[in-house]
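input
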Amino acid sequence: QVQLVESGGGLVQAGGSLRLSCAASRSIFTIVSMGWYRQAPGKQRELVAAITSLGSTNYADSVKGRFTISRDNAKNTVYLQMNSLKPEDTAVYYCNAYVGTNYWGQGTPVTVSS
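output
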């Protein structure tokens, strides 16, 4: 099992930046994949970015070149650096860890004003 706690969300103007953090309750060194998903009102949850235990990354087309996912195994934390934010990035952002099954954090809201 792993508990995930997100932080770093908030209100920002378009063009601004935020960094989300996801702290895990155990070592993430062997967690196959960790990622960030988001869910906007009335929409399905979608993958934003993911990173494997080997450091390979994957991004949604809508965030490529603007968002960067990284992991710090020593701190058991995954980050999502979000730059050039747009109003359409407004959503609740969830941290995910896949360890044979999916684990989710409680979510952190991000609101981008125009």
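quick obs: The chain has a mean pLDDT of 96.
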